[in-house]
# Entry
Amino acid sequence: MGEGGAGAARGARIGVMGGTFDPVHLGHLVAAAEAGRAFGLDEVVFVPAGEPWQKEARRLAPAEDRYAMTVIATAADPLFSVSRVDIERAGPTYTVDTLADLSRERGPEAEFFLIVGADTLSGLGTWKDPGRLLALARVICCTRPDHPLRSVEADGDRISVLEIPQLEISSTLCRDRVRAGLPVRYLVPDGVAQYIAKRGLYRE
# Structure
């Protein structure tokens, strides 16, 4: 579907995968693909964060670099697209604003499914306007090997739990390996590894 995804049909089932994508890695792609298959999604939109409010203490790679890596990583799969809504919105990035912007963009008939990890969902109560968020989208909670489900429970109407192949990959691991001069091939798509090397990201 490619960059932007503006041609999605009204009434489509649309997955939304937000994150810093610093960098995007194969675990992100596997989770998106599995959610797409399990829930019959017509599209999964990756939304790189502009200024994520919960990660203000850590210096991120520039938003345009994170956006470019996400476009590179998703280009080969027609299910995937990438949106700039969070990058182009001024101020901190909140998921409820992301969903509201996408809803206005795609129209009232579009059905949204927010794809998150179990670690992320466990903090849902601390997010901005969680009630409105759950009104805007159903949540697909993907299990991860290092964050077993504890307090998170499936809600048949708004929250579903999806087991995905267990990949021990994180953006933190990828950044640490680059900083140590170690390869990240097979952890991120080849094009992303090449982009990181060319731009000299994560070496400081």
Q: What stands out?
A: Helices lie at 26-38, 63-74, 85-88, 95-106, 118-121, 130-136, 171-179, 190-199. The longest strand covers residues 13-19. The two ends are 35 Å apart (CA to CA).
